[in-house]
């Protein structure tokens, strides 16, 4: 049997490694995403530094309000690696959130990012659900208030005021991803069996079929 001391470094690595959740330290100044590359990797291939330009690090337009003329009364303008390639490997992105009165960003989660939000105008009712006992944490935010949504937890933002609201969110990934709960469950492609959903939600299949029709059309 190998000496026990040989296992100590491995054990230490297994214990400590979860603490390092971000990308490893960069080995170069930047890795601008080459969105035209056909090479498939976990993330984006680096563009040749010799053809990188200042515009790879630039995005314009967050001063403009998003279109909230929709069923939800909200709009999200994301600035992530797909439209700001200089963000690649940097572990950060941004989004502008616009709300009409009564506007909602419905329950969703980001599989790869924590979100921190600051209200610029108006009032928002926000919250998230913890994985322990489904505990709900909510807060009414006013201009200048800040709230954080932990990574992977279902959360929402709702404008309960009588005027438009604007917020800015920072996310801890260049590609945070977003999963809207209702869309994912009732708008899956191909659809989740209505037998499964009827039992999971304790509803009759006619109601499930109606819900699936709403979200299939929305998608």
UniProtKB/TrEMBL annotation:
Disulfide bridges in this chain: 31-46
Record localization: Secreted, Extracellular space, Apoplast
Residues of the Cupin type-1 domain: 60-209
InterPro entries recorded: Cupin_1, Germin, Germin_Mn-BS, RmlC-like_jellyroll, RmlC_Cupin_sf
Signal sequence residues: 1-21
Sorted UniProt keywords: Apoplast, Disulfide bond, Manganese, Metal-binding, Secreted, Signal
Gene Ontology molecular function terms on file: manganese ion binding
Residues annotated to bind oxalate: 110, 115
A GO cellular-component term linked to this record: apoplast
Residues binding Mn(2+): 108, 110, 115, 155
Family: Belongs to the germin family.
UniProt name for this protein: Germin-like protein
Main location: secreted
The species this protein was found in: Rhynchospora pubera
